[in-house]
Predict the structure.
Amino acid sequence: MRIIVAAALLCLGPVGAAEPARSPSELDPTQAVLGNWLVQSRDGIIQISLAQDGTYQGRIVGGTDPRSLDSKNPDPAKRQNTVKGTVIMTHLKYAGDRRWKDGAIYDPSSGKTYKCSLQLIDKDSLKIRGYLGISLLGGNQLWVRYLGTQMDLTGPVP
């Protein structure tokens, strides 16, 4: 009888050994992009979240100059608003394979809005593609996940 029990335990593997807990974003790839991201210049933090319409959006939640005004906004009524709190990415839709497409991204330093797409390289690296017209006419930035709690940065994060 002991031989049968021992053989059964060998087949089943260690009792009580469970898979490590996974975060919701690891279980659902559509959620993997959510959270705070440090921009390539390391002087701004963008929080990506779900918008009310079910698309993805990005809002400036921190940076090196929290009182910076949106002085180049094409809408004169918004030029006295601080950039912190501004939604700069809108209408992104999950396209499968850790990619989001059909979005727009606003650049407060120029006041211009571009089309954009995202690609999650790994759980902590996000490629942002901003472009005019077709994706070929654009540029990339690499953002890294920001896990810090301080949103008002004293200088670019190393």
Observations:
- The first strand starts at residue 35 and ends at 38.
